[in-house]
UniProtKB/TrEMBL annotation:
Belongs to the AAA ATPase family. RarA/MGS1/WRNIP1 subfamily. Residues 1-31, 67-130 are annotated as: Disordered. It comes from Linnemannia exigua. It holds the Pfam family MgsA_C. Residues 111-123 have a biased composition (Low complexity). Keywords: ATP-binding, DNA damage, DNA repair, DNA replication, Metal-binding, Nucleotide-binding, Zinc, Zinc-finger. This is UBZ4-type domain-containing protein.
Length: 615
């Protein structure tokens, strides 16, 4: 007997008799529907056993019968009062197109009669409402890819031969942590996995769901697995927002395989994710997007969606003559429309979007949306002007006639200047407590050590422009002056200290030049790590070896008792000897008599194989 079977005596009646007795249940609200544990369909609660006994069939005929019985009772008005009548499938449809937005796949055919244009049918009103719902969604969400073939970036993971691609195609994705900056496709990758897997998928966020919500999701997954042996994939965005103690809830479910956890974080998992959980998950690093990753293709695809929105709205305002012109030119088919749309975004605008977004795909698309939206205001306005694109009413027929919708649409293009205006200022991803903070100061320190003044100034600028505290940088420069320059140029330390004091006195933005002065000097100065290495050896000796006593002749004797004990005896006072005389006297303990610290920094030598080797 299967786990879903029950004794016949306890089963509800099946067939037409059951439908007659349960007729009132057919008209219960949607809250009485439950998901089938096998096929996932929404089934009336009273019909679940019959549905399972019939191998997940039978409810369709019930629903069809119900639809026929109640079709005469439903009344449609001529207008849509809310979104209840909107066809959700047309808003979030899944078809052969790799992108979720496909409402524009049609030709722009002019209405045959004025009456048809002025009095649209209920269906046309419904289509308009669907389009309005789509346009209200963020462009970045609408342009999100749903297949690995259209996923941008992370070629080592999802490209041909990538390890994650193989796991997704085989539906064997293990528990993973996706670590990367904002806008590189962590959520998109999780949703692609959801689209490809046969497992149940739950998407949650640490900012909107608490531990109780996660625990309930895990318990539901456990129940589903026990009943149907179907796995559940739980995607938890911003997993680092759960404390390490709260993350302990994941451990038993991940370890037993009850769930497959996909966590997404912008913070270093080594510091923000429970070490026990890390040992049970694989961390995948996602890098910033770039032009070589195909970021320009991602932007152009998003631009097509937005420009088609504008084309739809513009066509609604065009005259029959303008609509006929559209149909006879670029509106003939999807290909001609796409070619026309691609020409509306200049290459310079694409380049600026890639450069200024700093590898953040969401930021690039959001800025693209703002730029194109600004043009749509001009195109769809009634003033007839188009000053932002160097076209004005006076340039059209001597200023006597306003520009038509089609003419404004044709003249409008997204330019590089429009993109820069939409960005307002360079967007830099920076967090004083995050990885980028330490990455940049490390790059500055290593550039100074390597003597590259240009690189050192660049990394200094990256930190200051992003809002780093100047005193933090100044403190690090004081450290560099002794660690990397040391005895080679003792003037470096006073300069670094003076720079710190200058930052205290005048602050930003004036002290940026003081910092640049110090950075350039330290980068160009001679380098010596002798003191730094020697003191490191001293610390190691002190921590690992015996605490040798101070030699008796080096001890101080402030009392008579100490003098009687021999403190300070046989000490040779160096100033009493002629200058330059080497006084024969030991200063280290006997156990360290021959130990050398200074001058012992290792220096690499060039081997016969042409490679540098550490001695």
């Amino acid at each position: 007997m299967s786990s879903f079977s029950s004794p016949k005596a306890k089963r509800p009646a099946t067939g037409s008799n059951a439908l007659q007795r349960q007729g009132s249940s057919l008209t219960q609200p949607a809250s009485s529907l439950v998901p089938c544990p096998i096929c996932g369909k929404s089934i009336a609660e009273w019909f679940v056993n019959n549905h399972l006994d019939n191998e997940c069939t039978g409810m369709e005929s019930v629903a069809e019968s119900l639809s026929q019985q109640t079709s005469g009772k439903r009344k449609h008005g001529d207008t849509i009062d809310d979104f209840d009548d909107i066809d959700g499938s047309s808003v979030f449809q899944d078809n052969s197109d790799s992108y979720t937005d496909s409402s524009h796949r049609r030709s722009y055919v002019a209405p045959t009669t004025p009456t048809q244009f002025q009095q649209p049918s209920f269906q046309s009103r419904k289509d308009k409402a669907n389009a309005a719902v789509q346009r209200s969604m963020p462009l970045a969400e609408r342009a999100r890819p749903i297949s690995l073939d259209d996923y941008i970036g992370q070629k080592e993971l999802v490209g041909p031969g990538g390890i994650l691609r193989a796991l997704v195609l085989q539906d064997t994705v293990p528990s993973i942590i996706l670590w990367g900056p904002c806008g590189v496709g962590k959520t998109t990758l999780a949703r692609i996995i959801a689209h490809s897997t046969k497992a149940q998928f739950r998407e949650m966020g640490a900012t909107t769901h608490g531990v109780a919500d996660v625990r309930k999701a895990f318990d539901d997954a456990k129940t589903l697995f026990q009943m149907t042996r179907q796995r559940t994939i739980v995607f938890l965005d911003e997993i680092h927002r759960f404390t390490k103690a709260q993350q302990d809830i994941f451990l038993p479910f991940v370890e037993k395989g009850t769930i497959t956890l996909i966590g997404a974080t912008t913070e270093n998992p080594s510091f923000r994710v429970n070490s026990a959980l890390l040992s049970r998950c694989r961390v995948l690093t996602l890098d910033k997007l770039s032009l070589t990753d195909g970021m320009d293709r991602m932007i152009r695809r998003a631009a097509r969606i937005k420009w088609r929105d504008i084309l739809d709205m513009a066509c609604a305002q065009m005259t029959e003559t303008e609509l006929a012109t559209v149909n006879s030119t670029f509106g003939q088919n999807d290909q001609t429309i796409d070619e026309w749309v691609d020409a509306k975004t200049e290459p310079g605008a694409i380049k600026w979007l890639v450069d200024l977004s700093d590898g953040d795909g969401r930021s690039a698309i959001n800025t693209l949306e703002i730029g194109i939206q600004g043009l749509s205001t001009i195109i769809l306005s009634d003033d007839g002007g188009n000053d932002n694109n160097n076209h004005s009413q006076s340039e059209h027929e001597g200023g006597k006639q306003p520009l038509g919708v089609l003419e404004k649409l044709t003249a409008s293009k997204l330019t590089g200047d429009a993109v820069k205006t939409a960005f307002q200022k360079t967007h830099l991803q920076y967090d004083r407590q995050g990885d980028e903070h330490y990455n940049l100061i490390s790059a500055l320190h290593k550039s100074v050590r390597g003597g590259d003044g240009d690189a050192a100034l660049y990394w200094l600028g990256r930190m200051l422009v992003a809002g780093e505290e100047p005193l933090y940088i100044a403190r690090r420069l004081v450290r560099m002056a002794s660690e990397d320059i040391g005895m080679a140029d003792s003037a470096a330390l006073p300069l670094a200290v003076s720079t710190y004091q200058a930052c205290q006195l005048i602050g930003m933005p004036e002290c940026d030049v003081n910092l640049a002065h110090c950075v350039a000097y330290l980068a160009k100065a001679k380098k010596s790590v002798d003191v730094y290495y020697a003191y490191g050896q001293v610390k190691q000796t002190v921590s690992e070896e015996f605490a040798y006593p101070v030699p008796i002749h080096l001890r101080n004797a402030p009392t008579a008792l100490m003098k009687d004990l021999g403190y300070g005896d046989e000490y040779k006072y160096n100033p009493h000897y002629p200058e330059g005389t080497k006084v024969d006297q030991e200063y280290l303990p006997k156990g360290l008599k021959k130990r050398k610290f200074l001058g012992e920094a290792p220096v690499m030598t060039l081997g016969k194989d042409g490679e540098w080797h550490m001695p």
